[in-house]
Design goal:
The complex is a heterodimer. By secondary structure, chain A is α+β, with helices and mostly antiparallel strands. In chain A, 38% of the residues lie in helices and 16% in strands. The longest helix of chain A is centred in the C-terminal third of the chain and has 22 residues. By secondary structure, chain B is of the alpha+beta class. Helix content of chain B is 25%, strand content 20%. A five-stranded antiparallel sheet of chain B has the order 1-2-3-6-5, with helices on one face. In chain B, α2 packs antiparallel against α3. Classes of the chains: A alpha+beta, B alpha+beta. Chains A and B meet through α2, α3, β3, β7 and α4 of A and β1, β4, α2, β5 and α4 of B. The complex binds protoporphyrin IX containing FE and iron/sulfur cluster (4 copies). One iron/sulfur cluster binds next to loops of chain B.
């Protein structure tokens, strides 16, 4: 709606002109400005008031090219985190959006909803908040934005009564994310919902009563396509993988080659395998050198009908991903190349490992240090020692290149390696 | 409040992460962990087939992410009338409607498009931009988030509703150097160009000085007495203008309409497919923070997207394409400048140098 045909007053108060924002209403993409104006003009009493001043303040930001929010402290009874407080610095001009706090609310694992629950959210937020909800913040939370201090408790109680809980903020366990995975994706190698809920619901105290050195994030991706960006953005990334051979349906391979052509198949499948593990046979069947395959998912992404992950599935765990602050960007390090994740005991093992890593972080990280930075500071071997994890060549791109290292116990370490290899070989014989 | 009115506050029911199965589409619930393969009958539509033979179609549509209750209810009405009442959201704020009957797909697509929600964002498209809070809600933003994204998606709308890119294009935007938007094939991020101006009157009241001193990544902040009051000073030669001192100490005013600029980064990749995940790299800095349309930013993004579309091979992501053609050709094709600021000087910089005789001409 353009200002020319907009209302001139909201409940007797002048509508703030928004010439800057009005320009963001044209174009084919849905406009958040049109939505904000609809709340201002047709929303509940509460929404109309808040939105008129919020739009005024936002337009003011566009004119001055500055933000006008400051933080503070707001919480709900029983919890120390989960609310992002916002107080306006220009409340003298825009008093009704003086307090514009956000409730970070954890979505169901995999972000599944039905229309009934979405309508309930709308009713609650129409009554207690501004009427503006984001699905979702980059933190993974449903962001219920625009609540007064007074209404924060009421809004939380209403959401809590329908089965929803606050997520993380501050130096705490943060809201996790999991991909759609098992619910709809054939590439998924483990039950993401179960892993996600098992770990987070076990560690809720660390989320609701912030007492860690800094934030700690879990993310769960069903395969190496990593749809929730776990490697870059999670302190603890759980990524699905498999140990046995890629499954090939040769008939479907032939159909693919017949449909797309041999050159195209060679260019996009054979040549793009990062480890040169694939070849196309003369009869248009595929041959995969599985010990060379790094489970990158590319060939499976291209030939969705012909190829699929193997049957011996589980997860890899990568620790320490984060963005710039303070020492620079880090990706997670491969710390557990494979952990089976099927039986109840497997899930208990994962849960225990997660608890141990968080405990290590709580005990050893400096204030405002992410676990990836702690690992950089103390060295990966010290971290592995502390968590009782065996070293594995999959943890490195290549062995060290610097000769400045003390190796007097090399033989003891080598003996451990051979012992472990012998034990693993024995186990395999036993299992056969 | 009188004593009689004071009620005991309600203790939270610590439910944690909600169980999704009560909201999940029944076909997805029934076939949980049992899917066989998928294809994409048209842009914006996924078709998954289970080992049981069951099938499900997903229609994906773009939203503005920051949604008013009217928009959410409109999406619910569409979900009830044309779909089976079950939805989910992707990590990039696209909404997905699931239907168990192929005949429902076309009317659903039409209903969504008719209501102004573009259908697309699948496969080799430019999908919705993952973005941050900006002036609407954050306390440290150098620019807006939803506004920049609206401007960019208006421009890239055609690439959202079709799958004509070499591979998927993931764009992110961030309104300060903390970069909540994350890594992207293209990342549009605020880049401060001047050290913070200190508001000395406020430091004494609101600032925990040791915390700020500790926060600076290059040790450029020192405690100092200014006009007889405890304050801070900045070694401006050392300062890298990162803004990290601003959150713990708002008097370190990093934002200003002149020194808050926009930089564009390219070649970040989350997925492990083919190459390992990568961080994005600087393409251009110092673009003006020109609300409400950010035309200079939009122009550069358009140029980069077009060059990639024209030149990359099928399945090559932005970063893989640049690695193949070489950075000199990237700068040539996009008409952007390579400067001394493109050469890394941070910890680990040496790993980014070319220490071989490999040269692209
Ligand atoms: C006060 C307003 C803030 C809001 C609303 C906010 C919100 C967010 C969100 C949504 C993310 C994305 C999280 C993810 O991808 O998992 C994020 C990431 C991040 N935030 Fe904040 N943030 C705020 C302030 C801060 C401050 C004050 C700091 C540090 C001093 C900070 C440090 C970071 C960092 C380093 C990331 C990067 C992503 C990562 O390492 O995973 N944020 N923030
Ligand atoms: S990460 Fe893998 S399993 Fe999960 S949704 Fe993406 S492709 Fe599917
Ligand atoms: S999954 Fe990746 S590494 Fe393995 S064969 Fe396929 S393309 Fe090659
Ligand atoms: S990128 Fe910076 S300004 Fe933007 S939401 Fe994140 S912390 Fe706030
Ligand atoms: S802007 Fe960054 S580098 Fe400059 S003083 Fe602040 S924290 Fe230090």
């Amino acid at each position: 709606m353009k200002d020319s045909d907009a209302k001139q007053t909201v409940d007797g108060k002048d509508v703030h002109p928004t010439p800057q924002l009005d320009q963001l209403e044209d174009g084919p993409w849905p406009s958040f400005v049109t939505g904000l104006k609809k709340l201002r003009d047709e929303g509940s009493d509460n929404n109309r008031k808040i939105m008129n001043d919020l739009l005024g303040q936002l337009n003011h930001s566009y004119e001055k090219r500055l933000g006008f929010w400051k933080g503070g402290t707001v919480s709900v009874f029983g919890y120390g985190g989960g609310i992002i407080p916002r107080f306006s610095e220009v409340a003298d001009r825009f008093p009704e959006s003086r307090e514009f706090h956000t409730l970070r609310v954890m979505p169901p694992a995999g972000n599944h909803y039905d229309t009934d629950i979405l309508r309930k959210f709308c009713d609650i937020w129409e009554e207690h908040g501004s009427g503006l909800i984001a699905f979702h913040g980059q933190s993974g939370d449903i962001m219920f934005q625009g609540c007064s201090t007074e209404n924060t408790q009421k809004a939380f109680d209403a959401l809590n009564k329908i089965g929803f809980d606050l997520g993380g903020a501050g130096p705490a366990l943060r809201t996790a994310m999991s991909c759609v995975g098992h619910a709809r994706c054939e590439q998924s190698c483990y039950d993401e919902v179960r892993a996600h809920r098992t770990i987070i619901n076990k560690l809720l105290d660390e989320m609701h009563r912030p007492a860690l050195p800094y934030k700690f994030k879990f993310k769960f991706s069903g395969c190496a396509n990593d749809c929730v960006n776990a490697v870059h953005r999670a302190d603890f990334a759980v990524i699905g993988t498999w140990r046995d051979e890629i499954k090939i349906n040769q008939e479907k391979v032939k159909e693919h080659v017949a449909e797309k052509g041999r050159k195209y198949t060679i260019d996009t499948v054979v040549n793009m395998c990062p480890t040169r593990a694939i070849s196309l046979n003369d009869d248009d069947t595929l041959e995969i050198d599985n010990p060379s395959c790094v489970r990158c998912m590319h060939c499976i992404n291209v030939m969705t009908k012909a190829l699929s992950p193997g049957d011996d599935r589980g997860v890899s765990i990568m620790i320490g991903g984060k963005r710039s602050l303070k020492i620079g960007d880090l990706m997670g390090i491969m710390v557990v190349p494979f952990m089976k994740l099927e039986s109840d005991e497997d899930f208990e093992k994962l849960e225990e490992f997660a608890e141990n890593v968080v405990e290590f972080f709580a005990d050893n990280a400096l204030e405002h240090e992410r676990v990836g930075e702690t690992i950089d500071r103390i060295g990966l071997p010290a971290f592995l020692d502390a968590l009782d994890i065996d070293v594995d060549p999959n943890m490195v791109n290549h062995p060290r290149t610097s000769s400045y290292v003390r190796t007097d116990d090399f033989d003891t370490e080598a003996a451990k390696w051979f012992e472990r290899k012998a034990r693993e070989a024995g186990l395999q014989i036993g299992a056969d | 409040m009188t004593t009689t009115e004071r009620v005991k506050p309600r203790m939270p029911d610590e439910v944690g992460v909600p169980d999704p199965f009560s909201y999940m589409h029944p076909v997805m619930k029934k076939n949980y962990g049992n899917w066989d393969w998928h294809d994409r009958p048209r842009p914006g539509v996924l078709h998954h087939v289970s080992k049981s033979g069951d099938e499900i179609w997903t229609v994906r549509a773009g939203t503005q992410r920051q949604m008013d209750v009217f928009t959410i209810r409109k999406l619910c009405d569409i979900g009830d009338e044309y779909a089976d009442g079950h939805v989910r959201f992707t990590t990039r704020s696209n909404i997905e409607f699931m239907v168990a009957d192929e005949a429902k797909v076309a009317p659903l697509v039409e209903a969504l498009t008719g209501a102004g929600f573009p259908v697309g964002g699948t496969g080799a498209s430019v999908t919705m931009i993952s973005h941050t809070q900006g002036w609407l809600h954050c306390d440290i933003p150098g620019t807006d988030a939803s506004g920049v994204v609206k401007g960019l998606m208006d421009l890239l709308h055609e690439e959202f509703i079709q799958e004509k890119m070499p591979n998927r294009v993931r764009i992110t935007t961030s309104c300060c150097q903390i970069n909540c938007g994350g890594q992207g094939d293209i990342a549009v991020n605020v880049q401060y160009t001047k050290p913070p101006k200190i508001n000395h009157d406020l430091v004494a009241n609101v600032c925990e000085r040791p915390a700020v001193v500790a926060r600076c990544p290059v040790a450029a902040i020192r405690p100092a007495m200014v006009n007889g009051k405890p304050s801070l000073e900045i070694d401006e030669k050392k300062c890298v203008c990162c803004g990290a001192c601003y959150p713990p100490c708002p008097p370190m005013q990093i934002n200003s309409d002149e020194s808050t600029k926009i930089a564009i980064w390219v070649g970040g990749k989350h997925s492990n497919a083919r190459s390992k995940p990568t961080f994005h790299k600087l393409a251009v800095a110092n673009l003006p923070n020109n609300a409400p349309h950010w035309p200079e930013v939009v122009e550069v993004v358009k140029t980069i997207v077009q060059a990639y579309k024209k030149d990359a091979k099928h399945w090559e992501r932005m970063g893989e394409w640049i690695e193949r053609i070489g950075w000199n050709r990237f700068f040539e094709m996009t008409g952007l400048a390579f400067t001394k600021h493109h050469i890394d000087t941070w910890t680990g910089a040496r790993k980014t140098m070319n220490t071989s005789a490999h040269v692209h001409f």
